[in-house]
Design goal:
The complex is a heterodimer of chains A (586) and B (333).
Chain A lengths: L1 E2 L3 E6 L3 H13 L4 E4 L7 H8 L3 H6 L12 E4 L7 E2 L33 H9 L17 H15 L7 E2 L2 E2 L23 H12 L5 E2 L9 E2 L5 E2 L25 H6 L4 E4 L3 E8 L2 E8 L5 E11 L3 H11 L26 E5 L15 E4 L18 E6 L5 H4 L11 H11 L3 E8 L8 E9 L5 E6 L4 H21 L4 E5 L42 E3 L14 H19 L8
Parallel strand pairs in A: 1-14, 2-3, 2-14, 3-11, 4-20, 14-22
Antiparallel strand pairs in A: 4-5, 6-7, 8-16, 9-10, 12-13, 13-14, 15-18, 15-21, 16-17, 17-18, 19-20
Helix pairs in contact in A: 1-12, 5-12
Chain B lengths: L34 E10 L2 E10 L3 H15 L41 H14 L9 H4 L1 H9 L31 H20 L8 H12 L10 H4 L24 H17 L11 H6 L26 H9 L3
Antiparallel strand pairs in B: 1-2
Helix pairs in contact in B: 1-2, 2-4, 2-6, 4-8, 6-8
Chain lengths: 586, 333
């Protein structure tokens, strides 16, 4: 094992979070920065421009995803079961390589709603203390919308997010989301073009009186130059977005924005193929990170300041492997690391098939469509409904690549043979769909810890996930399906309509969404959080842990926009507060 | 009728694909079973064909059937419809026209994982899952069997990319995902032999020789988890697939568990058949983009910027594969 010369700042993982932090540090300080990234560096040219239209390679075989042969998670629904390894990709798809999962994301970019940051307080104020289920551990974030707003704005400008504001400094804007928090200014870009299917959803929802608005999008509507001078090209709507890198540099990503900007400084070094496995610490300070280099050799990299910005599951695992913070114990309800693991509640949606319409479903991008927010969070009265929470309902046309998306086909279509051929020929290009992305509240029994049995390629324990839906989410999904989703589906016309509204037990097998949160949550109380409201660990002042790992619970939105805002908040705190006076910020 | 791909004629094996079988005295200890090494020698198209097969003794009637099945497997380009008298062939390999056996130009056709006997069964099954019919070409024209063969040859190929392969391998709940240690390549190997065994047990002939209706019945059963001992029977069927007597225990057993259960193998076969029908041709299937043409997926288009807002207007552009696209953007290599 080699101990390398000390550096000023060491970043673990080089995706959205540490791309933002490296860029801000490189612009505002003279510090030398090293980033450890487990995967390779890939760029628009030559990688994605010349190769990305290969569905089997990228979407099915997972070219851009974490290498499962080396590291995965184990999973069970509840503590009484034995957790088993996720041997094949399914439920979620963490990235692997410079830029992280944001290289292969769809581009749906949201700001959480103001009440989300003070969710327990909000719900108990409105419905009383006994309203929430006894086992829910949802909590306030310790920050307010007003504190987060500047960071959302900075993130959206840097990544060229497009959309239509619904609320600018308290004034409701026609065409936007009236439920969103007050923005300081309009989106930096307009919303991208809209395919036919989502337009049918928009027309039906509008006709029913809902405020349908454009999906906030990281698919660049036009040529865009961000405040760092980095550029995005206009989206080509090629239909190869999620699971693929962008072939024309139009999808908001760290590899087009913050990372090349940071590298321009000459003070940022990226070590590819480096797998961090432990943060070494003594006397209340983090001192170094141990990692396996590209050849598998153990290396130790000392640093003054360390930021964990890996994908959230790996952030939590690194803390547990390093013995930092008290591991969560669901029986005693003590400890913090691994607590409040949450996901994204799907399962409510509709598909409509038309005999008289052609959708061109192969065109599209990850976030080109419309959404409504009437049934999200506490935007509707939950009195007497028997559940809390809700979700955003949206229709996007992401590109129907034929191996994975020759369907959906009407229920009566055979699965194979001539009957299937007739069905897929008729209906592949004639369906429109929409669905809810539901909130995922935190519960005492849902958590992550280290697996006692299974190990990674280097012999370190895998992370173990214990997670299931509760009756609260099952009722929520059923109610959303029976009410707004059925109404909108019926208003969309069509020859055949199918509504989905059942969830039973969470399964790790089918892909649902790459929206995993929690385990190292932020807050103002060290007994219920791992990091303070500046994303600094309570235990080691020179260790920050930033990402979706900090969400106390998940909203009914994709998490990326809020991860971006948290990264800017952490960067700001490091530069303005920590570096001038290293020590606890809270 | 499928148009034969002339290059496939050259995939007929001209030497034994099998390792030399054990001598009679080294067979399994089971006293009621005796095995012998059997040399099948024949003249085919002017070439000498040697096959050393492991046969159970007393399976005299199985010899011709075996030879016929192997022959049918070798001539992959034949339609999957049964040959006249296919169920009880009398003439063995002589029943097949081997006139086209002269060596042609070198080709990248052929199989790298399957042997033609296995490939013929996959091809016949895929042709029922995605048949050639009034809606157009099917799995055969798409080259699905070549796609599967090429993918199985890749290092680390799992069900969906690289997968976690450390033990212990425990049976879990379905929502914990596939837990079997069985590599996908061996799932195909066992599943093919088990399907062949199932065909023999059900219709007294090999899968390739079954009629389309019979093949559909077998595949429908698989889909519903029938037969129950599908994976366990697989190895028993392997040494003598053509023999009516092949269910006799020759001492090879496996317990592949649910991973090569009838429904699991059906799902694997269906998923990979669909992938071979709809993948980019660069991966070895979807030849001439026949899968895309069925549904109207245009392929690797660099941009729909000017089309995406033309709502409800059928796209009129051409079909383009990744290879063609790479020629355009990269100018080739």
């Amino acid at each position: 094992m080699a101990t390398l010369p000390k550096v000023d700042v060491l970043l673990v993982g080089f995706g959205l979070v540490n791309g933002v932090i490296a860029n801000e540090l490189s612009k505002q300080t003279g510090l030398n920065i090293v980033a450890l990234e487990r995967g390779p560096y890939r760029d628009t040219f030559p990688d994605f421009l010349q190769d990305h239209f290969d569905e089997w390679r990228y979407a099915v075989q997972g070219e851009l995803f974490q290498d499962l042969s080396r590291n995965t998670v184990t999973f069970r629904n509840e503590r009484a079961q034995t957790a088993l390894p996720m041997r094949q990709w399914g439920s979620f798809l963490p990235g692997n390589g410079v830029g992280g999962a944001m290289v292969h994301w769809n581009g749906a970019s949201w700001r959480f709603l103001p009440q989300h940051f003070e969710y327990r307080t909000h719900l108990e104020n409105r419905y009383g203390a006994g309203f929430l289920p006894e086992d829910t551990t949802i909590q306030d974030w310790g920050v307010t919308w007003d504190e987060m707003e500047p960071y959302f704005t900075q993130y959206e400008k840097t990544f060229g997010i497009g959309g239509k504001a619904g609320n600018i400094r308290g004034e409701i804007q026609e065409g936007g989301n009236p439920f969103e928090g007050p923005r300081s200014e309009e989106y930096p870009q307009p919303s991208p073009k809209k395919p036919y299917g989502p337009t049918l959803f928009h027309e039906a929802a509008t006709q029913l009186g809902f405020k349908s608005f454009p999906q906030p999008s990281g698919n660049s509507a036009g040529s865009y130059t961000n405040p760092d001078g980095m550029t995005l090209a206009p989206c080509n709507y090629c239909g190869f977005c999620e699971r693929f890198g962008c072939h024309v540099g139009a999808k908001a990503s760290p590899i087009l924005t913050v990372i090349p900007s940071a590298l321009k400084s000459g003070r940022v070094q990226v070590r590819q193929f480096s797998n961090a496995f432990r943060v070494n610490h003594r006397n209340g300070q983090a001192v170094s990170v141990s990692y396996y280099d590209g050849a598998g050799r153990e290396q130790e990299q000392p640093a003054d300041l360390i930021v964990l910005g890996a994908w959230m599951l790996e952030n939590v695992r690194l803390l547990l492997l390093s013995g930092i913070g008290q591991p969560y114990d669901p029986v005693q309800n003590t400890g913090v690391v691994g607590r409040n693991y949450t996901y994204q509640t799907g399962g409510a949606g509709a598909t409509i098939w038309y005999d008289d319409k052609v959708m061109n479903r192969f065109m599209g991008a990850g976030a080109v469509g419309y959404a409504i927010d009437e049934f999200h969070s506490d935007n509707f009265d939950h009195s007497g409904l028997g559940f809390f929470g809700g979700g955003n309902i949206a229709s996007n046309q992401t590109g129907a690549r034929p191996i994975q998306s020759s369907g959906p086909l009407p229920e009566e279509t055979p699965g194979w043979g001539s009957g299937w051929k007739a069905g897929v020929k008729q209906y592949y290009n004639r369906s429109a769909g929409f669905g809810m992305q539901g909130e995922s509240p935190a519960y005492r029994q849902n958590y992550v810890d280290l697996d006692p049995t299974y190990r990674d390629a280097w012999g370190n324990p895998l992370l173990r996930m214990t997670f299931n839906w509760t009756d609260n989410e099952r009722k929520m999904v059923r109610w959303i399906a029976d009410n707004p989703i059925t109404q909108i589906a019926n208003a969309m016309g069509g020859s055949i309509t199918q509504i989905r509204g059942d969830i039973s037990n969470y399964s790790i097998v089918p892909y649902q969404s790459t929206h995993c949160q929690g385990g190292a949550v932020m807050g103002s109380d060290p007994t219920t959080s791992v990091v303070n409201t500046f994303l600094q660990t309570w235990e080691l002042p020179n260790l920050f842990v930033v990402g979706a790992s900090a969400f106390p619970q998940n909203a009914g939105y994709n998490p990326t926009g809020t991860v971006g805002a948290l990264a800017y908040r952490a960067a700001d705190a490091i530069i303005k507060q920590y570096l001038p006076n290293p020590g606890p910020l809270a | 009728m499928v148009t034969p791909d002339p290059t496939n004629e050259r995939t007929l094996p001209t030497s034994s694909p099998d390792a030399e079988g054990p001598d009679a005295g080294q067979g399994p200890a089971e006293p009621t079973v005796r095995t012998v090494a059997f040399d099948l020698v024949g003249e085919m198209g002017g070439r000498r064909i040697d096959r050393r097969r492991l046969l159970t003794t007393g399976a005299a009637t199985g010899l011709a059937a075996t030879a016929a099945t192997l022959g049918a497997g070798g001539a992959l380009a034949q339609d999957a419809t049964p040959q006249p008298g296919g169920g009880t062939p009398a003439g063995g390999m002589a029943g097949h026209d081997m006139a086209g056996m002269e060596a042609g130009p070198a080709t990248n056709q052929g199989f790298t994982v399957f042997v033609p006997f296995q490939a013929a069964i996959i091809q016949a099954a895929a042709a029922r899952l995605i048949p050639t019919d009034e809606h157009g070409p099917g799995a055969t024209e798409a080259g699905v069997v070549y796609f599967i063969d090429r993918q199985l040859a890749k290092e680390g190929m799992g069900l969906r990319g690289r997968q976690y392969e450390h033990g212990p391998f425990l049976e879990g709940e379905p929502n914990q995902g596939d837990q079997s240690q069985m590599p996908v390549r061996d799932r195909f190997r066992l599943g093919i032999f088990a399907l062949e065994s199932f065909a023999q047990q059900t219709f007294n002939k090999g899968f390739v020789a079954c009629s389309p209706e019979e093949q559909d019945k077998l595949l429908s059963d698989l889909e519903q988890g029938i037969p129950e001992n599908f994976g366990g029977a697989a190895l028993q069927a392997q040494p003598l697939p053509g023999s009516p007597d092949q269910t006799s225990n020759i001492g090879l057993e496996t317990d592949a568990g649910a991973s090569v259960g009838a429904d699991a193998f059906f799902t694997l076969l269906l998923n990979w058949t669909m992938a071979g029908f709809f993948c980019d041709p660069v991966q070895g299937g979807n030849r001439d983009m026949v899968g895309w043409k069925l549904i109207g997926f245009p392929g690797a288009h660099i941009s729909y910027f000017n089309e995406i807002e033309k709502h409800n207007q059928p796209f009129q552009g051409e079909y383009i594969s990744l290879g063609q696209y790479q020629e355009q953007v990269g100018g080739g290599i």
